[in-house]
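## tool: complex_structure
## caller: assistant
## args:
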Amino acid sequence: MQTTIIKPQKGFASLNIGEIIKYRELFITLVSRDIKVRYKQTVIGGLWAIIQPLSTMVLFSFFFGKIAKIPSDGIPYPIFSYAGLLLWTYFSGAVNTASNSIASNVGLITKVYFPRPIIPLAATMVGLIDYAIALVILIGLMTVYGYRPTVNILLLPLILFLTWMFSAGISLWFSATNVLFRDMRIILSFIMQLWIYATPVIYPLSVAGQFKWIVTLNPLTGLIEAHRSMFLGTPMVSFGILMYSALIAFIVFWTGMVYFKSVERRFADEI
Amino acid sequence: MSEPVIKVEHISKKYIISHNEKVTTFTEALSNLSSLPKRILHRNQISEDFWALNDISFEVKQGDVVGVIGRNGSGKSTLLKILSRIVEPTKGKVILRGRTTSLLEVGTGFNAELTGRENIYLNGSILGMTRREIDKHFDEIVDFSGVEKFIDTPVKRYSSGMYVRLAFAVAAHLESEIMLVDEVLAVGDAEFQKKCIGVMNNLARSGRTLLFVSHNASAISQLCSSAIYLQQGSIVAQGKTQKILNRYLAYNTSKTTTLFSQLENKSKEVNLRKVYVNNSQLKDENLFYYNQPIPVSVEYEVNRAIDNVSVWVGIQSSDGSMIFTTVDCDLNPKLLLNRSIGYYKTIVSIPQKYLNIGDYSIIVGIVHNDPLIVFDRVEALGIIVSPEPKPEHILFKDGPRKGYVQPLLEWSTY
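## result:
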């Protein structure tokens, strides 16, 4: 028989990953709810997933590609920037949605018990559908420009996993803090606006020259560069850079979980 | 099995009431850092502890149906939230033996955009059902709800009645051993409430342990074999339901509940100052027995002699329908002629054996007729009408009847 003991927690909370796994059905339900609601609410539905990176790509191609003539490792600028924007759009979308997820699920938090990390973790999954839709466009563009993915494409699941883990880690930090300080969202959207320019999304890492090491301090650099390389054959980042990205993603995720678990008991009281 | 399935040991819950304005933004928190040393020095004046629950202990055996009764603010909701693991206790320990489900509202997590079918799965898994269990009960749930025709329609197109029925249907098919139920029964009409009580009774009979929290004495008396009476965060009494309810509804000295009071003097011609009900018998101030009249007092002030002014009192049901309104000049048209400057007090008594069992709001207004000017209108909340402990009639034997009013009428049978 299942026995539950309820008592005040002292000090650091245990992560209780086992309990999260036990609630995996709820996790799947919440992901599918968010997906259904997302595509039901907007008239254009899934088209939105394409319009967003595509219009950004057209705009950037004109200003950065045509006018500013930013180099793009010899790749036509439209597919070059689109390949970067694809992953960036997933990352920033996941972080923006998930960071507000605790506040936007008040109805659940104050009425039922379940492991709270499920909410931000589920919220970071939804964008993967948008990613998949937008990926079809990338493949279309590559066909038009005559490009084929390299053998590195086999790394795609790993890159996506690391990007997810990194975005989930940031979201755990921000979604919990957002309950205590409501302006976290504004601060975060400001950070995201700057972050895209600190990441080789619309320019190649190679233009950074001697400052390359500074750019690679950003853990997203390795992920975005690797992502582009596997589709377009641009220079692949070194194994070390990729490992660095993976390590940072893991640390942010783990500390995010610890932090989240230690403040989650205050959610229902604070909201 | 003799071991209790719910064991609550010395549970306390503290809330800190801050007398400072609470810091809710990060920028505020940063800018407050500079004054930190000062605040540490004076911190004892900043906040005050409030114990919502104070050293609560009780046990519930398997198959028991226990009611928790108490007024608003007595801590019963806090207790339920602790048992549901939504908030953490400050002290103490709870042991729950068996799968536990809490029903703090009907339709938790329902999403208006999704269809009835999708919401059954969503709500079911939020309440802790597995997908398999939902599959198994799906047809029964749809049957029970009576919305099969609209099961693939987004629930935003449902009427509120359909919505509640569907939501309750899911809850009625939960398979857990321990159920913690808040006043979900407070929603819906009398017929629906009766259905709910029926479902709860079935659950109770099937050997499940039920903890039912309510301020509604009649619901508790119909459902529960024993009860716990909470007051200001402590257990006042526990034992057999009837004994506890008698105590809860016990006779007491005359009390007045102020529903509305306005002290500052606004410069209107006529100001509403106070609305209250006078309860001569019951301890729970805004609770009236069916066989008691409900005297509503209104105090108002006339700042300038004025004619064509009237005071009205309306009784609104919990679903928002106005049941009736009564005006002070209905039987006394002379009141309309001239009201001189002064402070007035007027009482209107809602007759006994008239309002049905339920929650009502009292609405009071002062208007000038022709041209219509509304000087004041307040929704002074909350009176509860409940069945008397030893009724001389059989009206509410099977739970509340349908309808807003429940007059006892003479029948002539030949």
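## assistant note: The first strand of chain B starts at residue 6 and ends at 18. Residues 251-256 of chain B have pLDDT under 50 and may be disordered. Handing back to user.
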